[in-house]
Amino acid sequence: MPEPVLFRGARVVDPASGTDDVADVLVAGGAIARSPVVDATVLDCDGLVLAPGLVDLHAHLRQPGREDKETVESGCRAAALGGFTAVCPMANTDPVADNAAVIHEVLELARAAGTCDVFPVGAITRGLGGEEMAELGEMVDAGVRMFSDDGRCVPSARVLRNALTYVRAFEGVVIAEHCEDASLGEGGQMHEGLTSSSLGLAGQPREAEEVVVARDLAVARLTGGRLHLCHLSSAGSVEMVRRAKAEGLRVTAEVTPHHLVFSEEDLLTYDTNMKMNPPLRAGSDRGELRAGLADGTIDAIATDHAPHAVEEKEAEFDQAPFGTIGLESALAAVLTHLVEPGELTLARAIEALSTAPARILGAGDHGGPIEPGRPANLVVFDPSADWVVEPPFASRSRNSAFLGRRLRGRVVHTMLRGELVVADGKAQR
Amino acid sequence: MNGHLLSIHDVSAQEIVRILDTAESFREVGTRVIKKVPALRGRTVVNLFYENSTRTRISFELAAKRLSADVINFSTSGSSVSKGESLKDTALTLQAMGADAIVIRHSSSGAPLTLTRWVKGSVLNAGDGTHEHPTQALLDLYTMRDRLGRLEGLRVAIVGDVLHSRVARSLSFALVKMGADVMLVGPPTLIPADAPAWGVQVSHDIDAVLPGLDVCYMLRVQRERQRQQYVPSVREYARRFGLSRERAGMLQDGALVMHPGPMNRGVEIDSDVADLPRAVIEEQVTNGIAVRMSLLYLLLGGSGPRAAAGSAEEAGAVRLPEEVATRA
């Protein structure tokens, strides 16, 4: 059992209890304790923020299959360094996580790493093929809380209907969708607009996302199932989700830090680290994503951490794979580009990075509240520390959209069930 | 031009005039018995062609050879590239071999810009994906100016698959820069939605446009556009947008018919129309060599402020200044 720790004088931001106050937080026996304990290690947190550990609903840890890009161990270390205490690896591994055996393997690797809780996402359909439902019940028994065919949407509305209906048997299980119409999105390298036109790159219109969001919301209405929409990128999608929530549908949504920070104009130099799917869209879309995040239409911030090999990204733009890593920079990106300019309160940022995703996932040990008896899954960060996003990363890949950029806000400590897995900015495992 | 020619956006109107003026003096070289000047003696120009393109590669090769440069043709079939070598490693290899200029043709938009990250020499875009083909646009401007005496105020229609055409992009940008009036003509599926933002007009009715033109520029239409459902059939396209004899008769006296080649005779252009005196398609090819000589010369030999200040003649097409020869 880890030593007792006293975080002294931190600004405690805990959306679950509505707290935002300077306080001491004592941890003993893996849980938040009641003061005082005499022999605790004292960590001076003057000027630092203490919050519930961050929860990432959307990451690609590439194991099994592409261990050259990332492993569960390296991905968990990157997550811990980024302040995350829980992360959801997507199912598009090789083999696909469409059965309990792969889920058990990932969970076993995560236990061995011991730096971050892992909630594997199971595939909705066998082999991500979009046709036959995978054995969802078996995977729920293995511990899956969320299913997704991420990388593509479920092309058949009927299959989606059945999946949303079937999982109603399982308390708290959610179906997550990557919304992209394959035919409208086909061949698209970036957002379709003036920039794609002047770069001569095939565009993916925002309507490729919107037609699937519209369809999925209709199917959610039909089934009453719990639907989560991944990495929204378009203003129209935000508005549809806003209306669906007002109507009372059981829908939640996430947005990535890179869609909140960048736009299509960041591709003007054909920088393949800016190539992701869904693509970075217009500045007006980014504005609506920020507004939707601030007003709660978009519940959560998720990284869509997508590691790729250097030689794959150092290629011709249309031959490079989609995706950016994000676990190590997500918190700082949000603090620098949204909280510091005053577009998002710190409490709402923490809610979107921790409390809301923990609730969506049903991860009761995460997301706060920071109260006596609760598991000590915490992050402590310095909101005023400047740093430049550059290698070395804990991730095995370095395809960061933020590469070379200065961000403010650095994780100091990450605590998983009372153990400091990151101390003074250094991974302890 | 900043050492490279990647896009028409890299050159100002003033620089375009200088490129065309320099080409003017280089064209004379092509009429000599010994078609060669020593301007780039000892310099190495690499033609790096990831797409087959006989005419553009030969044009660049002749241009470089007439300037006395050493020319290496690196075609990707049967080379290290067909063994899976990346663009980066090919670039580093060419850099290590001391290439002064790399002329690149690639099916990926942006590949020339990406190449500049890894090489020190000048990069010339000889066509990248659906992005740009700036040397084609410049030789087209040269041909228009040569035949019609001006560029400003010219009424030019670019007809065909503008959406997928790097030629149409570069030519539109260049003509707009020089003050010409550009009309893009084609079915709505093949005209970019944001074309008005380029400073051009759009029409879907070629018959309405033809009588007012100084130049009718026909683009090659690829048969795969039918398969991709941009047009119902090549036949319907040819009937609605092809430059038939009847349509060519609607052009005013002195109006030019142009085409970047290779032509699909009988699809976008009637065979007889392609052979009319007003069709200057072979002149475009001839002028292409002079314009590419001009570009290679200005980028490799005369890109400094001294050459910029001097006239084309001083810059060495006819009489070669010492410093250019010795810098080689």
Describe the structure.
The complex is a heterodimer of chains A (429) and B (328). Chain A has helices at residues 72-81, 100-113, 136-142, 157-166, 182-185, 194-199, 207-223, 235-247, 257-261, 283-294, 310-313, 330-339, 346-361, and strands spanning 5-14, 19-28, 31-32, 41-44, 49-52, 54-59, 84-89, 117-118, 146-148, 174-177, 190-191, 203-204, 227-229, 251-255, 300-301, 378-388, 406-416, 419-423, 426-427. Chain A has 13 helices and 19 strands. Chain A is an alpha/beta fold and 429 residues long. Chain A has 2 domains: 5-49 and 374-427, Urease, subunit C, domain 1, CATH 2.30.40; 53-361, Metal-dependent hydrolases (TIM Barrel). In chain A, helix 1 crosses helix 2 (100-113) and helix 8 (235-247) packs parallel to helix 10 (283-294). In chain A, the strands form 4 sheets. In chain A, strands 1, 2, 3, 4, 5, 16, 17, 18 and 19 form a 9-stranded mixed sheet that branches. A 5-stranded parallel sheet of chain A has the order 9-10-13-14-15. A 3-stranded parallel sheet of chain A has the order 6-7-8. Chain B is globular, with a radius of gyration of 20 Å. Chain B has 2 domains: 8-132 and 284-327, Aspartate/ornithine carbamoyltransferase (Rossmann fold, 3-Layer(aba) Sandwich); 134-281, Aspartate/ornithine carbamoyltransferase (Rossmann fold). Chain B has 328 residues and is α/β, with parallel strands linked by helices. In chain B, the strands form 2 sheets. In chain B, strands 7-6-5-8-9 form a 5-stranded parallel sheet, with helices on one face. Chains A and B meet through helix 6 of A and helix 4 of B.
